[in-house]
């Protein structure tokens, strides 16, 4: 019983063969793991490593550069919130742009809005689109909407070429800021977003976790306050398979008709569930919309001070 002589053994079965562990410098010292039933796809695109596996409890899982992008079981929480938080906050959205989001899930959600006339998407990596069409038909179904136009390319370059005041809403469904999505978190990108939006137009961008990335969030909020002269808000939701189990969104509007994101003016709760062609919403409703803007005190202090 003398621990001074030899070190206690590390609990070795915590490194489990047959499990996928999400290890990244973006969340040092922790790694969420899922049991792998079957490896379905492994490829290398021009931009990233792409992997799909069947997990034992979350359905199929899409992984880019070792980071979980979605699972069939909890993708609804992310896709519904990143889409309906902005689109339910304005009346009659007509032109919508999606940056990233190659899996098609955000498109699927945008297409629930009957006021929308045009949906453009710019995804950098065609392999993500192809893999989603092959392995995630309930997500890639978004591409079947005739209002959708797919552009393969860098979202930063795409936005620079967009004429001013084109879109009612822009949704940035990006991966983390290490890798091809890095520029999507920087100020010049937000400036292009603001230019491409009509007055009183809205943007919603993936904005990391309050448990892990308060520093990144602070920077994003500070940039957005300089760029967006309407309103600037942070919202969050739970996604069990994202690091720390939560993910946030920046919701901003440009100068013009005031947008009060906390009080949705364009609810879809009633209509969507009576549309026979579509699955009902699994996660989003108007109550959760307003609740998403309530922040824990530690995050509220930092975000309000920016
Ligand atoms: N929809 C996913 C979910 O439910 O969690 C979120 C991740 S989505 C797959 C992120 C996408 O952003 C990836 O397909 C990635 O290729 C794309 N992306 C990264 N950088 C980009 C850029 N600069 N321009 C356009 N798309 C980019």
Which range does the strand content fall in?
A: 25-35%
Find the structural class using helix and strand composition.
alpha/beta
Please give the oligomerization state of what you see.
single chain
Low-confidence stretches: none
Give the end-to-end Cα distance, rounded to a whole number of Å: 54 Å
Short account of what is shown:
With 306 residues, this protein is α/β, with parallel strands linked by helices. It is built from ten helices and twelve strands. Helices cover 27% and strands 26% of the residues.
How would you characterize this protein structure?
- By secondary structure, the chain is of the alpha/beta class.
- Helix content is 27%, strand content 26%.
- The chain contains ten helices and twelve strands.
- The strands form two sheets. It has a seven-stranded mixed β-sheet with strand order 8-7-6-9-10-12-11, with helices on both faces. It has a five-stranded antiparallel β-sheet with strand order 1-2-3-4-5, with helices on one face.
- The longest helix is centred in the C-terminal third of the chain and has 14 residues, at 214-227.
- The mean pLDDT is 93.
- The protein binds S-adenosylmethionine.
- S-adenosylmethionine binds next to strand 5, helix 1, strand 6, strand 7 and helix 5.
